[in-house]
Amino acid sequence: MTDTEAPRNGWHVAEEDLRAYARGELAAPLLWSADTHVGSCADCRAVLAAVSDPVALDAGWERLDAELDAPRPRFGERALARLGVAEHTARLLTATPVLRRSWLASVAFVLLAMVLVVRVVDAPALFLALAPLLPLAAVAVSYGPALDPTYEIAAVAPTHGFRLLMIRTVAALTASLGLNTLAALALPGYGLLSFAWLLPALALTAAGLALSARLGPLLGPGLVGGAWTLLMAVAATHPADTPAAFTAAGQSVAAALAALATFLLHQARDRFDAKPY
What does the radius of gyration of the chain's CA atoms come to, in whole angstroms? Predict the structure, then answer.
């Protein structure tokens, strides 16, 4: 800084320094002094306004307004960002309806009640029959205009269609499968049988998604869930036997169905981009 004249403050910021300040190129410690001085000197502010690029100044104000108006990231969004998830993806994940506290709390309550009932009646088949329906329901309610309050925004966002469906599916599956796994760990007496719901859950979810490409996000999963419920009702007529779906052969069939449904879903991916549900 130099003394360009003898004002009341004793000195002014040199015009060359003010130009560098306006371009954001003034280095410390001159930058610190200029910040302090310009705030209290009307003459230097006038010079600064004259040498500043009005287009860059307007762009700076727009960036500042956008930053001030941007919503503060929530805990979940910040946690995902720390894990390496892209900022926009983390925001999409935390906006997924099934990741809201009310949904997670209700599902946790249902699973807790289910575990307590299974312990009382000593019927692991009850848990195995109901557990695969939760991931299917979670995916169904995470996408589509009927149950998604952010649907209108998501439909016109750059990330929509199949990619948004997959992002929300991963989020819904992670939440529901995690809760199901905790519930299964509360049934140690049944051993590995308490985890036999996993492959059927993946098969049901993949089949529901594949059908939703043609039938919509509610009807497709609804038909799959209804077929599974009917199958379990038929299996309940033979209470002495382990339901066929949870035997080694049934698990193999579930794995094959999950792979086939995933392939069909991939083949129909363009339908979600052409007509987001």
Answer: 30
**Residue labelled with tokens 């699973």:** 111
CA distance 199 to 137: 16
110 vs 37: CA distance, rounded Å:
64
52-53-59 Cα angle (round to 5): 115
Q: How much of the chain, in percent, has pLDDT values that exceed 90?
A: 12
Distances (CA, A) of 195 to 14, 19, 129, 174, 254: 74, 68, 11, 15, 13
Decide: pTM greater than 0.85: no
- Using omega within 30 degrees of 0 as the cis cutoff, is the peptide bond preceding 276 cis? no
**Which of 251 and 149 is assigned the larger pLDDT?**
251
Q: What is the DSSP letter of 24?
A: T
Q: How far is CA 94 from CA 50, 85, 170, in A?
A: 45, 12, 12
d(CA 148, CA 132): 22
Q: What is the pLDDT of residues 33-92, one digit of tens each?
A: 888 888 788 888 888 888 777 776 666 666 656 655 556 666 556 666 676 666 666 666
Q: In 6-145, which ranges are continuous DSSP H helix?
A: 15-23, 30-38, 42-51, 54-69, 75-82, 87-94, 101-121, 124-130, 133-141
Name residues whose C-beta falls within 8 Å of residue 119's C-beta, 6 or more positions apart in sequence. 187
∠ CA 216-219-222, nearest 5°, is: 135
* Residue 159 scores a pLDDT above 60: no
Choose the most confident range, by mean pLDDT, from 126-130, 207-211, 272-276: 207-211
